[in-house]
Task: structure prediction
Amino acid sequence: MITPRQLLLLSALCALLDFPVFPLLHATDAPTITVRKSDALNVSFTGIGGSDGSVASKVVQNDLGLAGWFSLVQPGMGTFSISGTYAGGVLQGKVVKAGEIVLEKAYQGGARSAAHQFVDDIVQTLTGHKGIATSTIAFVSTRTGRKEVYLADYDGANGRQITHDNALSVSPALSPNGHRLAYTGYQAGYADIYVIDLVSGSRMRLVKFPGTNSGARFSPDGNLIACTISKDGNPELYVVGLGGGARRLTRTRGAESSPTWAPNGSEIIYACDETGAPQLYRIHAGGGSGTLVPTGFGYCTEPSWSPDGQRLAFNVRSGGGFAVAVMDVNGGGGRIVAQGENPVWGADSRHLVYSTGSTISLLDVPTGKSVPVISGLGKVTEPTWSR
Result:
């Protein structure tokens, strides 16, 4: 049975050789449970008019379809009617219910950007939930022959390469506002954690202790990262400020990895193999003893805590590979919702992105609908999502 400690070493070796690590693992079968479709709001979309409205119209319609909260019906048949015009770099959007305007706002910017903003406001206004249309996804791609970090809109558009290190660049993590990107880079010959300011383009090597420094994840306020550091000989969980200063959280015989923060920043859930096969543990962000998270699965890694604090997504072994499972954080059995790896919650606590190796897909958890959003870039893995 392979442990996280061995997996860290194996992953580093396989990354150096550009060899897939996960096919080496033998998986046990677990049943897939289909999630019941939730109720949806009936909305009609009459399009975005104006001299430059065609692009905005396509984006709005696609965003509404991916949002999951709505059922698109013929104009005049919906409870809510959505329309707008786009010209001169301004989108004038409107939502009407029974003749009453429930949303009317102007959005500046390019057609895609303005359309995304409009749909996020529609989601917020009609459902009370945060939208995902203006979010971005970072991921690792082998398109150039090396593992580099890329960035794209949540729907796969505007994909662009972020790192050009000509060395391994893996384990990306976007800050919640999408302005910073942390990743593990091997430019110095060892695994160090770098942080890129995506606005200015500046980059710093933040964590560079002897040994392995990997798996950075931003705190909800974006001012701290949790990560794995092995400078003391054992891979342990640390919290590091963006100005430096590492504070050790765990002291176990196992290997800690894959931290994910509670929405309020008070706790961290992580994977540890101290008792054998990796399981998930919960610890106060200030340190202390980790407590086991009862998942119902025998092998659990890569947890992601939903922004509403209610659910946890993570990897389990299933069907000869890996599957994505979801459970209530404070109890309740986990259920498999997709075959793939590296699940990450979106801002709406409804959608996940995950990798299948050749694609990154967007999963609507309540309905079970999965849509590929990133493909055609070689191997695409390790997605991370802004909120």
